[in-house]
Structure formats: C-alpha cells, structure tokens
Amino acid sequence: MKIRLKGSTKLCIGFVILMLWIASLKYEQYKLVDEGYRVQVQVIDVPRRCGTGTRRSKPYFRFHYRGIEYRKDFNGQHCNEIRPGKTLILRTNKEHSVFVFEDEEVGYDVAAMLGLALLFTVCAIVSQHRKNKY
After folding, report:
1. Rounded to an integer, what distance in angstroms lies between the CA atom of residue 41 and that of residue 59?
2. Fewer CB atoms < 10 Å away: N or C end of the chain?
3. Which sequence spans correspond to the domains of the chain?
4. Beta bridge partners of 38
5. Distance from C-alpha of 126 to C-alpha of 44, rounded to nearest angstrom
6. CB 55 within 8 A of CB 110
C-alpha cells in the first residue's frame, strides 16, 4: 500500500527536521557550558553599544584565540567584561569551532526547538489524517 503525503504534511516534516537539526547544534553548545575546555581569549573589537544590533550590524564581538580571529554573539551579556584588549574565559570544543560563555543559558533554546519539533510532528500527523479521512 503506497502512502501519498499531502503537501502540508511534507512541509511539517521539513520543519520537524529543521527544528531537530537546530536543537542538535544548540545541544552541542549546552554540553560545552559544563564539559567544554576553558580557554582564554583576547577581545579585538566590540559593537559601539553593548548587545544591540540591527539587521546589518549584529551584536558580535571579535576575539583572537591561538592566532585565529573568531566572532561570537553576546546579546547584552557581559557588557562590562567585553572591552577591546581585555581577556575573557570562554569554553570551547576540541575543534575550537564553538565558543560559549561559562554561564551562557542555552538549555532554553534546546527545549524550545524540541517543543517546536513536537508541535510540527503533531501538525504532520493531523494533516495526513485529514487527507486520509476524505
């Protein structure tokens, strides 16, 4: 028996996959808060106003770590600590591809993405059920 998926069902499934992917990325950051390597970085540049940004200028600060320049969003956190030339303690993974503050709140993002994935799963089931009903 071949099951044909309704267009809205396919859309909901796509959103489920997207939310799970984002949740997995955020979960990596969540693990770093407790298990990541503590590293000392030197701040190079910060936005003019702490934590505020527009579509064109995001609230990122730039820093050096092991001779490589990185950037991190900070959304108003640690405004007093982030100054050009100052050093900060961040946590990172083995590849040094993700950096988080030691007290960064990432758990809520993971929970929100999983909640949205659950919501879109229900959407897909209801949408497909309606198709089969008629």
Report:
1. 18
2. N
3. 10-35+105-128, 37-92
4. 91
5. 51
6. no
Mean pLDDT across 33-45: 89
Angle at 123 between CA 1 and CA 126, to 5 degrees: 50
Neighbouring CB atoms inside 10 A of 121's CB total 16
H helix count then E strand count, the chain: 2, 5
Is residue 113 within 8 A of residue 19, CB to CB? The reply is yes
The residue type at 81: E
pLDDT at 134 over 60: no
106 CB-contact burial (10 Å; exposed 0-12 / middle 13-18 / buried 19+)? middle
Token pair for 59: 């609230």
Strands (E), 1-129: 37-45, 60-65, 68-73, 87-92, 99-101
Report the amino acid identity of residue 121.
T
* Residue of 22, 47, 45, 40 lying closest to 96 (CA atoms): 40
Instruction: Answer for the pair 66, 41: CB distance below 8 angstroms, yes or no.
Output: no
